[in-house]
Amino acid sequence: MSDVVDTENKPLRHGYTTGACATATAKAAVTMLITQQKLEHSEIWLPAGFFHTFDLIECELTRDMAQCATIKDGGDDPDATHKAKIVATVTWRDESGIDLDGGVGVGRVTKPGLPVQVGEAAINPVPRRMILRAVQEVLDEYAVDRGVRVVISVPDGEEIAKKTLNSRLGIIGGISILGTRGIVVPFSTAAYKASVIQAIQVAKASGCKHIVLTTGGSSEKYAMKLLPELSEEAFVQMGDFVGFSLQHAKRLGAERVSLVGMMGKFSKVAQGVMMVHSKSAPVDFQFLADVAEEAGGAESVRQSILEANTASQAADLAAEAGLHTYFERLCRYASQHAVDHVGGGIRVETVLVTMKGDVLGRAEIVG
Fold it and tell me: Are residues 125 and 212 in the same domain?
């Protein structure tokens, strides 16, 4: 399989997941322990459907312990774990079978709602199966009946985790060992969508009936100030996937959803656009000008908004013209489209905020 994904501009390289890296190092470490010989490379089969060879570093070996590491290559995906060192340490154990655990820098699950049980190391189901299968294959190949203990560590994992949503999800002390296919597809929407679903599942498991969907870190920070009575788990960064996130919030039992964001993206939601990436849906200044007219704006204001360069500039023009109902109208339209998108049965509030966090408008529709 090729390591690149063709794009309009240039090919983007695939990367490899923390789960694949952990599998490669675990396989190598158990092989080293059995053979008492250090290795430089480790080849594994990836669920994506091909073999890949990982380079190994920092191999250590004694009669009772083998350890090696690899550096995670995230390809051209801007992943917080890119270049992280993934370490596997394998030792003999008295009991039969394989005992897999996380060490330094691998998080520990403290909240329900995740695919890993509370109290366990944050090694997700697919990587866990990959590691166990690879280690067992080596034990079988060398006809070894003794049990082994496998510990996956990430020396800088606790620091890396600060750049992720792990603490919000209740994963404490480090990163998660992730991946369903073994590869990281550059700028994967599937990966982001999976993280949204996981965050909503954690909110549900924490008893949240009111979910707050935001477009990013800034809008989430402002939302938390607006809704201080809600627990941290209730806040979910949906990115550009408004419709997708709404559908899953309803599916997972949310009774009320608050959408909190800024003009650029939410002016699109007000039109019924539920995927608000700038490339997918540019700002429609004709629509913004028409809403200004509905709010009582003069023709000069309407024309100025038509000629605006950004949605934020259009908002400034409406505010300067004293169109007090302008932003409430946009919020009402957005909430109605959101309710319609999921087929009703849910309350949706939309809150428009400025880049400084000031509320421009707010409206709620009961579906």
Answer: no
Q: Are residues 114 and 151 in the same domain?
A: yes
Q: Are residues 202 and 109 part of one domain? A: no
How many structural domains compose the chain? 2
> What tokens were used for 69?
């590491």
Would 176 be classed as within a structural domain?
A: yes
Residues 6+ apart with CB under 8 A from 366: 339, 347
Task: Say how many Å lie between the first and final Cα of the chain, rounded.
Answer: 47
Closest by Cα among 192, 190, 197, 277 to 240: 277
Q: How far, in Å, CA of 243 to CA of 189, rounded?
A: 14
User: What is the per-residue pLDDT across 33-74, written as a single tens digit (0 to 9) for each?
Assistant: 999 999 999 999 999 999 999 999 999 999 999 999 999 998
Nearest to 21 by CA among 49, 52, 48: 52
Q: Domain residues for 141?
A: 4-184
Is residue 153 within 8 A of residue 89, CB to CB? The reply is yes
Report pLDDT digits (tens) over 88-134.
999 999 999 999 999 999 999 999 888 899 999 999 999 999 999 99
- Let me know if 141 is exposed, middle or buried by CB neighbors in 10 A (0-12, 13-18, 19+): exposed
